[in-house]
Amino acid sequence: MELIKDGKRLDGRKPDELRPIKIEAGPLHRADGSCYLEWGGNKIIAAVYGPKEAIPRHIQNPTRAVINAKYNMASFSVGDRKRPGPDRRSREISKITSEALENVILTEMFPRAMIDVNIEVLDADAGTRCAGITAAAVALADAGIPMEDIPVACAAGKVGDTVVLDLMGEEDQEGQADVPLAIAPRTENILLLQMDGHLTVEEFDRALELAMNGCQQIATMQREALMKKYQSFEED
Ligand code: CDP
After folding, report:
1. How far apart are CA 139 and CA 26, in angstroms?
2. Any residues with Cβ below 6 Å from ligand 1, and which?
């Protein structure tokens, strides 16, 4: 499959262009904080519960809160029905998401507590770990969890010998590399960096530059989504 033709990608995007993104803060009423995110063909719900007493007690940390992120793909979210329940991939994504979020949440304010972050992928089309972290960040802010910054994530990669921003499904399957990145956007401190495939050093630098830039664009959308919810409260 020809992934890049006349400088345009399969969905008509330029190499440095993001897919369309829509973010809604606080769609769920029972959760302490929530977010609904559409990002290209991805649809994701994030729900935050806590801080609350960590149970079972042996997981409690006397100096800080434990962040428990759980990434789950609905069985109908992918082409071939996915067997329900955790698998190696979802355990890995849950772990890296917990670790990324732990580095911006002021966990030491809540000793012995836990904060549950549930990420449900309803529809998947590549880049779901980045979309999950981005949605979780808005849900955490919506729950009023104190953080150094609102984390944000975006991937870049290589398709048809070109370094591109934000791979969609076919590009992810047929492409040459994928580099998911999560950052704290104010400092650009890296919270997550992975790489699948092969890139030269120059290509990697370009991918990182594109992904950083994508993250900054999405950070603005996260703030707008939160402002939209909380401004409407002020008007009531
Ligand atoms: O979603 P992300 O790119 O973060 O992770 P991945 O492991 O690179 O998966 C890429 C894509 O493959 C997912 O977004 C899904 O669209 C698809 N996938 C699938 O079709 N079936 C699975 N069991 C897992 C992933």
Report:
1. 7
2. 78-79, 82, 89, 124-129, 169, 172, 178
Tokens of 192: 């997550």
pLDDT bracket for residue 1 (50, 70, 90): confident
- Asked whether residue 7 is assigned to any structural domain, the reply reads no
- For residue 186, the enclosing domain spans 17-235
∠ Cα 122 10 208 (to 5°): 75
Distance 67 CA to ligand 1 centre (A): 24
CATH of the domain at 224: 3.30.230.70
Nearest CA to ligand 1 atom 25: 78
Contact (CB, 8 A) for 189 and 98:
no
What mean pLDDT is predicted for residues 92-119? 98
Q: pTM of the predicted model, to two decimals?
A: 0.97
Q: ∠123-146-92 over CA atoms, to 5°?
A: 40
What integer pLDDT is reported at residue 94 of this predicted model? 98
Give, using CA atoms, the residue closest to atom 1 of ligand 1.
Answer: 128
Q: How many folded domains does the chain comprise?
A: 1
Domain assignment present for 47: yes
Residue 72: inside a domain: yes
